[in-house]
Amino acid sequence: MKKCLFGLMASLLLLSACRYKEGPFLNFTNVEKRLRGAWAISNVYKNGEETSEEFPTVVESKNARYEFYKNKVLLISYLQNNTVKESSGSWDFGSKKKTIQAVFLNEYYSISREYEIIKFKSNELKLRFTDDNGITWTLVLSLDYSFVPYGM
Fold it and tell me: Is the backbone peptide bond immediately before 24 cis, with ω within 30 degrees of 0?
C-alpha cells in the first residue's frame, strides 16, 4: 500500500513539474536564478508568423538585449537608426512564476507588460503577450550569459 501511495505521489509531482507550455518538462534550477542574465531577442512572431520587419515596439525588436538583475532591475539595449540606445525598467514574476511582469521605457513613454512564459530552458526563453490591438506577439530570447555563477 505504501509503495502504491508513494508511486501515485511521485507521478503527481512529475505531472505538476511541467510549469510552461513548451517545457522543459522538469528543471531543478531555481527559476529566478535561471532568468538573471543577459538575453537577446533572436526571433519575433506576429500572430504566429515570424517577422523581421514588424515589432511590438522598438524596445521589443529583434536583437534587443534584456538584462534581468537580482534586484528586479531590467536594462534593455536596442538598435534604432543604427544607434544603440538604452532603456531601463523593472521586472518581477507573476502568479506561480508563469508570467513576467515588466515596466520599461519605450523611447519617451512607459510600457507595462505581462509576458506569459511559454518556454523557459536554461538558454532559451519564449514570451507571449497580446497588445491593445489584439495582435499576439511571441518573443524568443537566447541567453548571452548568466549573472549567476555556475553551480550556485
Answer: yes
